[in-house]
Amino acid sequence: MAEPQPTARSRSRSSSTPAVCAYGAKTGSAEVDGQATPNGWFTAYRGGVAAAGLVLQGGHGGDSAGPIVAAVLKAS
Hints:
3-stranded antiparallel β-sheet, 3 strands, 30% strand, 76 residues, alpha+beta, flat
């Protein structure tokens, strides 16, 4: 069985030297039966700190939960 590969990649100046990414993020939404607006979520890391946020019926995660997670990372 092949080793799992990461889904996110970072670019470096040299193809033989892997780059170290100091930050990253992923956003999304989760639809729920009977709920008009999906829940918004956002997760991110910067350096050694990671944070995730979920806003019930928040719609797009980048719009609803993103600013919350950004504030947490900026405060750390």
